[in-house]
From TrEMBL:
Residues 21-65 form the Iron-binding zinc finger CDGSH type domain. InterPro entries: FeS-contain_CDGSH-typ, MitoNEET_CISD. This is Iron-binding zinc finger CDGSH type domain-containing protein. GO terms for molecular function: 2 iron, 2 sulfur cluster binding; metal ion binding.
């Protein structure tokens, strides 16, 4: 049983990545393994990242385009 200090925090963000305390070892459904020693690792949940499974902020581009679709057409 992990102690309170050993517990990792996983934070889900709205429309963005899953933030996980590092270091981490990520195993994808295709069997690829990606490791990161960063203090906080952003894991892509939108599948648009060119660095998948790591977030490259591509999710922001989609959101901006979605925002434009809400604008009235002229
Ligand atoms: S969540 Fe950031 S690129 Fe997918």
């Amino acid at each position: 049983m992990p102690t309170e200090d050993e517990r990792r925090t996983v934070r889900l963000t709205a429309g963005g990545p899953m933030l996980v305390q590092g270091p981490v070892r990520i195993e994808t459904p295709t069997g690829e393994v990606v490791e990161s020693d960063r203090f906080l690792v952003a894991i892509c949940t939108c599948r648009r990242s060119k660095a998948y499974p790591l977030c490259d902020t591509s999710h922001r581009r989609k959101r901006r385009m979605d925002d434009r679709s809400d604008e009235p057409s002229t």
